[in-house]
Amino acid sequence: MQAQSTNKRRRMLIMVSLVVTLLTAISLTASLAGANKAPGAKHRATHASSGKHKRSVQWRRHRRPSAVPTSTPATVAATPTPTTSAVTPASTPSATPAPAPAAAATTTTSVTGQTMGALNLSGVSNRVYENVTFDGAGSGGPDSSGVVVVSGGSHDITFRNCVINPNRDGVGNGIKIIGGSVSNITFENCLIKTQPRMGFECIGRSGSGYRNVDLVNCTFEPQGSEAVSYDDDTNQAGYCTVSGCLIKGGGATSQYSWGQGLELNNVANMTVTGNTLWSCRSDGWNLQMGRSSACGWTFTDNVIDFTQGSVASKSDASPVCAQHVYGGTFARNRIVNKVGWTSAYLNDCHNMDWRTTSWSGANASPYQTGCSGNQF
Predict the structure, then answer these.
(1) Contact yes or no for 313/280 (Cβ under 8 A)
(2) CA dist., res. 206 & res. 178, Å (int)
(3) Which residues 6+ apart lie within 8 Å of 116 measured at CB?
(4) How far apart are CA 166 and CA 137, in angstroms?
(5) What angle do CA 316, 320, 323 make, to 5 degrees?
(6) DSSP character for 105?
(7) Which of 227, 282, 285, 291 could be 223's S-S partner, Cβ–Cβ 3.0 to 4.6 Å?
(8) Count of domains in the chain?
(9) Which 3 state secondary structure label does DSSP give 366?
(10) Domain that holds residue 117
(11) Mean pLDDT for each consecutive 10-residue tract of the chain (376 residues)?
(12) Residue 225: strand, helix, or coil
């Protein structure tokens, strides 16, 4: 009985405690609620005169703003990025030059099929003499005379299939070339008959000498003095060709002391090829330079045969005589000696190349004095 009374009191105390706790919580909640409602009441009192406006404000506060439709922007063409490649500027056309005036046509004077007297050409160019026989007297001066004389800077003259008769002045040459810028003179397939002096003489005594004065396939009958002579004092002449000629001898008369077949004296860069030379009173080739520079000569495929021809050779005559010559190529030549004491006499000659030239006949071995570097 006593225990039940005790349990009852405990339950009463617990219930009282719970009620007190509950009331305390309610009171605290009310206090907090009152504190939170005071501003709202003030706000409502301020706008109590317009319930419509109040609702509008409350609607505006809680309404989610409608999404503003975003208009799709018009597609804008992208501005092209300029390329960095260089633009080739249009070339400015150059002015068309006025055409140069046409060069005046070269007029060549031709003389054909005639017999005429002595011919003296000075300052003349662009002439052709073909199938012409020259028969006349020279000037009478042995060093300047010729049946045909070319001088005074004449150039580009051809004599083809012509005949040069003996010089009627009794002392001169068949052909006389006097240098001084004479160039491009050609004698082709011509016959030069026996002359009192030389068959052909080409000299340079002043100015720029001469160049390209050529003898091609010509025949020289035995000449009174030298048959063919190229001579120069200017140190500028040369560059001439003697090709395919037959020289039947030199020194056929005793009127002059010289009697060689072919003379080259102080002329450079000469070409002598395919020629035949017969016996001469003096030496066959008379080759002289007188200076230590290379001569530039080329002698190929020539024949010197002193066993042929009508001109008697002196005992000291040699097919080849060379003095003061430097260099030169002498290839495939055939040298035949007859009575001379040597087939070749070389004095103060250097570096001449004779290796493919043959030597035969009496005293065939070349003789050298004061020489060096020559090859045989």
Answers:
(1) yes
(2) 9
(3) 132, 133, 134, 135, 136
(4) 8
(5) 90
(6) P
(7) 227
(8) 1
(9) coil
(10) 110-369
(11) 54 64 59 44 36 33 36 41 44 57 78 97 97 95 90 96 97 94 97 98 88 98 98 93 98 95 97 98 96 96 97 96 98 95 97 98 96 98
(12) coil
